[in-house]
Amino acid sequence: MLGIVFITLQIILALIGVYQFGLSLFGLAKNKSRKQQKPEKTFAVLVAAHNEEKVVGALIENLKNMDYPKELYEIFVICDNCTDGTADIARSMGVHASVRNNARLRGKGYAIEWMLKELWGMPRQFDAIVMFDADNLVNTDFLRLMNDDLCAGHQVIQGYLDTKNPDDSWITAAYGATYWYCNRLWQLSRTNLKMSNFLGGTGMCFDSALLKDMGWGATSLVEDLEFSMRCVQRNVYPILNYDAKVFDEKPVSFKASARQRLRWMQGHFNVARNYFFPLIWASVKERNFVKFDSAIYSISVYNTLLSFVLTLAFWIDTIMPSVHLFDSVYSYLPWWLVAGYVTLSVLQFPLALALEGVRSWKMYAYLLTLPIFMISWWPITLYAFFTQNNKTWSHTEHSRVIRLEEVQSKQV
Known about the structure:
With 412 residues, the protein is α/β, with parallel strands linked by helices. It has one domain: Spore Coat Polysaccharide Biosynthesis Protein SpsA, Chain A (Alpha-Beta Complex). The protein has helices at 2-24, 56-64, 86-92, 108-120, 142-151, 170-192, 208-214, 223-233, 254-286, 289-298, 300-319, 335-355, 361-365, 370-386, 404-411; strands at residues 43-49, 73-80, 96-100, 128-133, 137-138, 156-163, 204-207, 239-248. Strands 3-2-1-4-7-6-8-5 form an 8-stranded mixed sheet, sandwiched between helices. The longest helix is centred in the middle third of the chain and has 33 residues, at 254-286. The termini are far apart.
């Protein structure tokens, strides 16, 4: 009986893998630039910050120099439960410091929900809301590109997520490689197929009317994924603006990375539990492939977990043949088919780097350590499964000041 279960799980994971690989092929061709519009939309630019006095100044300076009419946007720094000088820095630089103190409801999702209520009560109302994290940097044409999409009728827009420190360590290089891969072969492929994209937590733009209508309501540890699923349920499909680049600072050490990824996986289990079955049922009832795709994406955390469990069982079978938990489904396939699939899967990462114009040999060399980073997701996901009810927000500390000019100089 156990062997049948394991075989069934292998088949399901293999089908999902083939499905995702097939989707990735549609990301090989880059989409055309959108029509440029005259600047007309007004923006409230929100910066989520918790004790970010060391880095928030660089982002505020960056945002104040956007290539967009200054009268059409205002900057609000959400000083969420801060005990440092974040608010003082924001005020000294001439932007709004919105101070929130709530020791019970902690986390970015709650902070955003609070800030939106504050915004709706202000005399000035904005056409759209843009959200960044305090450690970000952004290309100066970001608001112009968001204006273009809003004028074209889009309601939820995700910018291109990049890293501002990919060459700091093998950990940040792994983040960089996975971001380039996901932007090109996950996000862009869905854009080309006119399917829903998924929000990435920062560099996001929302039509204010939509937010007022549906509310934020995303307070899990992965508020971005949760809001993505809420949008798809309402037949509002987030889009990707491939040209609107946001640079996110990634943790340098493995320990800090593991803590961050644990939070992501804990929240991901919560989203999978709440949205998979409603979305899969809606996809069947409405014959809606986009909802099917979102449902499959919502349970990717379980794909990682099951891959780990099956790999452990395979290792046990190899070390102790007398136990023999299950037969590998791949043993029934031609060797060349299995070898070809594995080879193509591995080549996707250097291909993604090449397609994204990465020219640093160092980044390609770091691909040799990428498997270690990928395998480390397994124990993190397993631990997250048993602690998924934990709602404690873990803050990633930032201590370096990097400016946009430095990031752009490395891309030339």
